[in-house]
């Protein structure tokens, strides 16, 4: 791993049309090293297409997708720069786990000894000589991850890596990804369910219908999922004064003249303060939304 900018993924005004279908729509996103970033969206949102463009497998209609300032084709040592596991990897069923890695090692340009190292990293040492055909989905995920780690790349692109893992496997994956990010790597993990990666990611990039709908640290999104109260008053100035007097300005989102959403407050408290101030209210609605609920709201409820 070299300069800190080596691992920056920059997607700029990326668009991809498949005939009539716009799979990616003017997407601009920066993914930083040292963090695990969740790339989220419902089925068909354009995640895989974006990852495939990053890997030079699909040519964009417009815009660019670069890693450390270079397109995949421009990378001097692509397999030492990016490790990617897209979709359920297919393995030769008759081959052992170690032998599978040995096929890839020369392509990546790493010594044979590296194969055992990565098997160890993913906890498959005991299964080194077992035929991959008998592997569970979780074991295949581990082997796919081992393959991406062969070249010790500063950037990892993982498509639904938690798929098929049991809770213990998910906890293990979480710890490994955190460790790899702490080493300064850029880790982009796609998923169609936020809850699956909620414990793992630092940042989220959420897309729907090919376009960006939200990007922020996860904590910022989680704050929006806190209990809140929707308040509507026919007296916009009075509502503003109430919010200011209560010290809620930093937790209040104005949703229109005379309407606002106040976070981390109980409806009863808003009601009591409005009553004391003689402010007429037309609506006072408590709102409890889970992080997953918020995610579904953002992506507009389901696939295209
Ligand atoms: N090669 C292709 N030819 C035509 N349409 C395609 C092609 N690849 C993807 N699409 C379409 O582009 C859109 C985005 O698909 P994509 O696979 O990128 O979404 P996704 O977010 O990865 O979804 P999933 O989670 O289901 O993999 C979909 O409408 C899909 O049908």
Automatic annotation (TrEMBL):
<dbReference type="InterPro" id="IPR027417">
    <property type="entry name" value="P-loop_NTPase"/>
</dbReference>
<dbReference type="InterPro" id="IPR017871">
    <property type="entry name" value="ABC_transporter-like_CS"/>
</dbReference>
<feature type="domain" description="ABC transporter">
    <location>
        <begin position="9"/>
        <end position="234"/>
    </location>
</feature>
<comment type="similarity">
    <text>Belongs to the ABC transporter superfamily.</text>
</comment>
<keyword id="KW-0067">ATP-binding</keyword>
<protein>
    <submittedName>
        <fullName>ATP-binding cassette domain-containing protein</fullName>
    </submittedName>
</protein>
<keyword id="KW-0813">Transport</keyword>
<dbReference type="GO" id="GO:0016887">
    <property type="term" value="F:ATP hydrolysis activity"/>
</dbReference>
<keyword id="KW-0547">Nucleotide-binding</keyword>
<dbReference type="Pfam" id="PF00005">
    <property type="entry name" value="ABC_tran"/>
</dbReference>
<dbReference type="InterPro" id="IPR003593">
    <property type="entry name" value="AAA+_ATPase"/>
</dbReference>
<dbReference type="InterPro" id="IPR003439">
    <property type="entry name" value="ABC_transporter-like_ATP-bd"/>
</dbReference>
<dbReference type="GO" id="GO:0005524">
    <property type="term" value="F:ATP binding"/>
</dbReference>
